[in-house]
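Give me structure tokens for this 542-residue protein.
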Amino acid sequence: MLELKVMKRHIYIIICAVLLSMTSCDKDFLTVAPRDQISGESFFKTAKDAEQAVVGVYNTLIQDADFTMIQKVLAQNTWSDDAVNVWLGSNYNNIADGSFNSSEGLFNSNWTSLYRNIRRANVFLTNVVGIQMDERLKERYIAEVKFFRAYYYHQLLMLFGGVPIIDKPLNLEELKTPRNKREEVVEFILSDLNAAIPALSADATQPGRVTSGAALSLKSRVLLYEYRFPEAAAAAELVMSSNKYHLYRAEGAQSYIRLFAQANENNQEVIFDVQFTNQSGYGSPEQLWLNVNSIGGWGALNPTKSLRDAFEDIEGNPITASTVYDPTDPYANRDPRLEMSILHTGSTIVDRNGNVRTINTTSGTDASSRTGLFPRKGADPESFISEVTSGKNYILIRYAEVLLNYAEAKNESLNSPDQTVYDAVNDVRDRAGMPDLPENLTKSQMRVRIRNERRVELNLEGHRFFDIKRWGIAETVMNGPVYGVNSTSPVVTRVFDPAKHYLFPIFNTQIDLTGKDILLQNPGYGSPTFQDSKYPKPELFQ
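Here you go.
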């Protein structure tokens, strides 16, 4: 029985032999030495070997912190209209403002990290079949690992488009692999998830373990992103009807912010998360990045005025159509999630020592924010130890997303929204203390409300970056000046070229290693170019 305590308090039991056999690959794209392949095969002999190897696959979420955490917490938020990064001239900001090219090192980090994780999954899937062990347990291990492979391939797909499908450990003769079409990668992802779902447990036997609900939730996300709306709604509905997950409501009006607290981790809203521990080497840097400077954090993620203004007034109206919104006191009479998500001048926090601190972003320690705003959601002073990583888990999939996936997919599948669409969105709003949506909305009106609900409910969780791309609105919201709250001057001016910026370029070195006539470049970054299917498809929303 795999004890997923190893993912949290006792993860140190992952022995060096596992890590060596599963990760012995160079920094170059998919480089695999034959010696490593032999050692991997020789390792898989017993059920215990399989158990330790599947732990190694789970460990990719922690070991590869450069991808899992920096991508979700910093990069994917600052690459959208929701935030900027505090470090001027950083590669996060270069990507966000459109000044990047195919020599940007972060693209290489993304590519190699994801393929390294996929390779670990492939080593497991290739070698576990020959182990004599309980077949049902083996099937579950295989299903869990296929979930991880699907998750990582979906990240590759959304960043780069069609990519090489690698489903086994490669030898030196097989390294030069061309790209597959986007639809082929999607079908590969779905085939992994469809194979995994029946073999996974509906209940997490230990915190952090992949369940059938996690695989179905990821499936709904993949299908939604690919505009396969009826299928996306059906997958989300299976999660909803399972009655295994619910919106966290245990702390009343504070439930929205408290669901992310370390004290409440693994609550009934969490479908899949990264299990961190305070133990050195296995902690999360999220708290160090997010918490304000006055309690020792970096304050690296700065929400934009645009995100602040997306929150409705307390009566459920956009602030542009509100009778209770006061621009001289922009935080009064607002959606309660605004105050629970964003810190501003006058906000108070209670640090882990019980000290009350008032934020001032115009002078003093906390004046470092480029926009005059800091995140509150996700920043948990109770679990934050200055300059030390935190044990707070990081949520990758939660039930509120599933509800919003269902609402959007169902609305796009119908001529007008039915009651189930209203119910899903209103459930999310009710937990936050917001009124129900107005009745008798048209399909397009409901679309506007759902999109804003996603932005608000899922703010600073890494979703907006993908949402603005799949909706085909990135060139609208990512072009032009970005404003903070304390100045009429923009903090940055961004450029988004729809001819090329919907996908990132393949890093030059990866193309050189594979061959430029084999690993083709995305349009706009060099030639020869990869001719993939059209993405995004905003015409579907007309």
